[in-house]
Design a protein that fits this description.
Elements (H helix, E strand, L loop, with lengths): L1 H22 L5 E6 L7 H16 L4 E6 L7 H10 L4 E2 L25 H8 L2 H12 L4 E11 L1 E4 L14 E4 L3 H9 L3 E4 L5 H6 L5 E4 L1 H6 L8 E4 L4 E9 H6 L2 H40 L3 E4 L2 H11 L1 H5 L6 H9 L2
Parallel strand pairs: 1-2, 1-3, 6-7, 6-8, 9-11
Antiparallel strand pairs: 3-10, 4-10, 5-8, 5-9
Helix pairs in contact: 2-10
Amino acid sequence: MKRFFYVACVVVLCLLLVVPAATAKKKPFKIRFSHVVSENTPKGWAANEFAKRVNETLKGQVKVVVFPSAQLYGDNQAIEALSAGFIEMAAPSSAKFVGSVPALQLFDMPFLFPTIETVHKVVDGPIGDDIRAMFVKRGLGIKLMTFWDNAFKQFSDNVRPLIKPADFKGVKFRIMSSDVLEAQMHGLGAVGLKLPFAEVYNALEQGVVDGQENTASNIYTKKFHEVQKYMTFSNHGYLGYAVIMNQKFWDTLPADIQKTISKILTEVTAEARMKAIELDKEQSALIRDYAQKSGRLTIFDLTPAQTAALQKAMKPVHDKFADVVPTKWVEQVKMMK
């Protein structure tokens, strides 16, 4: 009898220990998504939409939390943090990979992409496949998921109207950390200063730099146009983002979750492209409206001849970086025109 009682107690104790463990609710995988721009920008919209759809579709399995406006990290720091596993996702501008994947400076080449559709042909085609392979080959611990658009960049400054190449001489511009962009400014006789995006407004306001180059969306949402006297709609360069994920984290996700996240990201990317075009038009109009009503900003639209002159002045940059950005890529892009 005692033996039976002893065995029964052991069985009950085992059940008490096993049942809670078996019924305990598994914590969802957490994805911390860091970026540096405002939420009402193309990237801000896409990040929020991605988080919303993943959280709804994979409720209880995956939780995406977005940290906009450099709340956690600037772009350069975000890449390092992601590689180290402190965050799971980020979407830095392609220019931020100058040290690790310098060939991404393809997207910084001035006047290389005639239309946004050309950019899409590049990232969705063989060149995009080559870029993904580069990330794997370099062993960065980073998985390149996709590319998101912003739009084409415009010039602004406080020195003089920027219409012809000579107008740029001596003007100090904030640029992203890209050697191509630094060479672009040098070719115009200007000075390119590499500063984090979060510091641009204060740098313009305090005169640390005279001007900057950016998309209408970034200019409007960060109020750069309110501390500039002149703005030129030049469409001289493309600005886009590499959406990245920590490779080890990705590898820990079950295959079905990976498939769902990839599917959602593909859908969001397609919609984000249309949203980027929409926001660029909308916020360009808002900047023009501000200029007209305030009288504090003068806007210039380049004629075809003026655009051609700037193109000619910046053309040497393409040849200078032939050993960094594969020449075959540049030639393939030019054939897409």
